[in-house]
Amino acid sequence: MLDLKPTKKLGQNFVVDANTCRKIVKLADVSKSDVALEIGPGLGSLTLALLEASKAVIAIEIDKRLANQLPATVAKHGFAAENLQVINQDALQVSNLPTLNPLPTVLVANLPYNVSVPVLLNLLEHFPSIKCGVVMVQSEVAERLVAKANNKEYGSPTVKSNWWADLTWAGPVSRSVFWPVPNVDSALVRFDRHPPLGSEELRIKTFKVIDHAFAKRRKMMRSAISELFGGSAPAEQALISAGIDPTIRGEALTVQQFSQIAQQIS
Fold it and tell me: Which residues form the Ribosomal RNA adenine methylase transferase N-terminal domain (predicted)?
């Protein structure tokens, strides 16, 4: 084990159980034709399982100590150096990544819990080559990501993710597989990409509607999105034009319905 102290700032809790890592890789349906993208490889346990199953692994690690050590860990276990690309960078800055070649086809990651949703949304936005994947997140976040409309867990992360993908619950993860042992429960979420619901311009408008709706989630939609349309009356008219009941709350709407509302923004 490396002589390092995991940092709370980076949300570091490393998965150190090989069987758990293989289970995650299997849930993601990783095959020898896949290029796997891993976020936060840490000590490399999941990286090794991915190298066993895939053609190549691209690992993005913000911690320079860990990024520098990973190739040596991989070599020690007999994997070819050319099958691993390590990038020492913040996964939140994915739009600034060097051009990846080959492009990743699957995402498998133990996401840093303090930034898991922004990282996932960034990756879905910037890597259309990623067709599916499994991410490990805090249990409460997993419940939000897979929630359906009219559920108290349903919110902005769910709806925004659904612009690009369908998300499903893939099971709990024991605290005992981590080092250090976290004080929160973890779970796996699988996603399967579908075509985006519209243009980038429409996505930006749709996400604005989503943000307003869930910032005031107890309000009726005509009130929650009034700022976007210059008042409650024009907002009500826009909702009617979109085929949406103006008195409904945002937590009852699907991403497709949010998109219909966004199309009314001039």
Answer: 20-195
